[in-house]
Amino acid sequence: CSVPGQNVFVTSLSGPATLKWGQVMGLRGILSVTFFHLYVVVFTSYWPLTVLTIIWMIFDWKTPQRGGRRSQWIRSWRLWKEYRDYFPLKLVKTHELSPKHNYIIASHPHGILAHSSFCHFATEASDFSKVFPGITPYTLTLGAFFWVPILREYVMSSGACSVSKASMDYLLTGEGRGNAVVVVVGGLAECRYGRPGFSKLVLKRRVGFVRMALQHGVALVPSYSFGENELYDQYIFPRGGWVRHFQVGFQRLVHVYPCAFYGRGFTENSWGLLPYRRPVTTIGGPAIPKMRPSRDSDKYHALYIKTQYGISETQELEII
Known about the structure:
Elements: H1 14-25, H2 27-43, H3 47-59, H4 72-75, H5 78-86, E1 89-93, E2 103-108, H6 115-122, H7 128-131, E3 136-141, H8 151-157, E4 161-162, H9 165-173, E5 179-184, E6 200-201, H10 208-216, E7 219-226, E8 233-235, H11 242-254, E9 260-264, E10 271-272, E11 280-284, H12 298-301, E12 318-319
Parallel strand pairs: 1-11, 2-5, 2-7, 3-4, 3-5, 6-12
Antiparallel strand pairs: 7-11, 8-9, 9-10
Helix pairs in contact: 1-5
């Protein structure tokens, strides 16, 4: 076990808990489940089980756009507390959110794997339901996670839903009040900037969340996780090389930048895919009330400002 104040060895639960989120977010989760089903169909006599799961997925296809299927039991696993304490991750409440209203929480930055957003909004590790009583968070994520049998059930159990207009329309109009739709605005496009010393937000052309707030008359809550970009390093390939050309071309094709990131291993000073044990503090609010549709979204950009958490005086927040 680790000694308080030292970073010698990852504790027995915090490391696996952190890797568990990496498996869900990474392609490993999708590929492993996909190949498992292919193996069952081709090499075993249990292929009817795979057929049944696919039939269920087709029947249940629209659930990720209609509030999902959260499990408070899974959200409250003790494992997530260990995950929170690994860094540690901290959620700072600055203003109350009324359960009489709905909200869109705009989360920044994405970083590599959006650890803070997952911890605070997709689990009860930070006691969200106690910090904001009467508010139900719905983290919106890639629709691809809901295309894979079994994996989709696990993702939905966290309260996650598909990041689509239909999903937001339903949560902001068809599910009553007290809903907080969480959108990591920069998305995977911000992964390339998820390294120490970088404070860039992909935001100038991301106006959809603002339009949805105006359309439904809901308050917009800015949220910034200071330190999220400090959790991994990246290998930056030289300009003009074939690897850089591949990265740029791949991003243009599927809007995902395949970055070569790395962190630490299970022991100090070792190389691995665990994030570095560095504190991340998430500050939310205050809520921005409904504004007239004629207003320019630049006014919202000005509200994402630097504070004492995680951004030094020599570091500037750049919006691209």
